[in-house]
Recover the amino acids of this structure.
C-alpha cells in the first residue's frame, strides 16, 4: 500500500523507475544487496538472518516459483506470472518439483492411459 501511494504521489507511469540510481538509471546491484541485507537484518531473528534462506533477493523468487510448480500450477502460467518464457521455469525449476507423482498416476489411470498401474510408487 505504501508503494502504491508513493507511485501515485510521484505520478509515475508504467515503465518509470520508483527508485533510481545515479543519473536516473537503474539502481546498482550493490545498492540493492545492501538494502536487502539491512531489511533482512531489521526484521529477522538472528538464526534466520544467518541462514541461507533469502540471502539474495532472487532466493524469494526461486522459492515462490518452486512452490507454484509444486502446487500444480501449469508451467505456462508460472512463466507468465514470472515474466519469462515457458522453457525458463521448466529448465530451472523442474528438478525442484516433488510430491505430485501419486496424483499424476491416478489421473493417468483414470483416463485409461496406464492400465494396471502399480499404486505403491
Amino acid at each position: 500500500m505504501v508503494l502504491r501511494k508513493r507511485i501515485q504521489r510521484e505520478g509515475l507511469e508504467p515503465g518509470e523507475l520508483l527508485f533510481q540510481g545515479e543519473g536516473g538509471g537503474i539502481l546498482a546491484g550493490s545498492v540493492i544487496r545492501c538494502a536487502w541485507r539491512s531489511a533482512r537484518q531489521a526484521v529477522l531473528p538472528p538464526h534466520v538472518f544467518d541462514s541461507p534462506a533469502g540471502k539474495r533477493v532472487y532466493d524469494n523468487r526461486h522459492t515462490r516459483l518452486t512452490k507454484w510448480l509444486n502446487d500444480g500450477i501449469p508451467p505456462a502460467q508460472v512463466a507468465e506470472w514470472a515474466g519469462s518464457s515457458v522453457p525458463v521455469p521448466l529448465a530451472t525449476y523442474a528438478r525442484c518439483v516433488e510430491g505430485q507423482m501419486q496424483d499424476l498416476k491416478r489421473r493417468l489411470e483414470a483416463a485409461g492411459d496406464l492400465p494396471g498401474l502399480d499404486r505403491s510408487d
